[in-house]
Design brief:
Elements: E1 8-11, E2 14-17, H1 25-55, H2 58-63, H3 69-76
Antiparallel strand pairs: 1-2
Length: 78
């Protein structure tokens, strides 16, 4: 297989121009938006994990409404 020409890279048998993301405005905008998506996803995962851990504490169950299994099953029946 031939080496790619200068300023390009080869992928799946095709040559593409080598573009650095910080020089291309569209790629810069895309990566900035994606960084917010990753940050939001990580934050939501942390918050969900923290609330899940708090719900297992006796203090949380005493202060907040924490239905028992019987209460939840009774709500299903008409």
């Amino acid at each position: 297989m031939d080496a790619p020409t200068k300023g390009t890279f080869r992928l799946a048998g095709r040559e593409f121009p080598a573009v650095t993301w910080y020089k291309d405005p569209a790629l810069r905008r895309t990566y900035i938006c994606l960084s917010f998506v990753v940050l939001t996803s990580a934050t939501n995962g942390y918050d969900g994990s923290m609330i899940n851990g708090l719900q297992s504490l006796k203090y949380w169950q005493d202060c907040e409404y924490f239905p028992s299994f019987k209460d939840m099953m009774a709500a299903d029946k008409p």
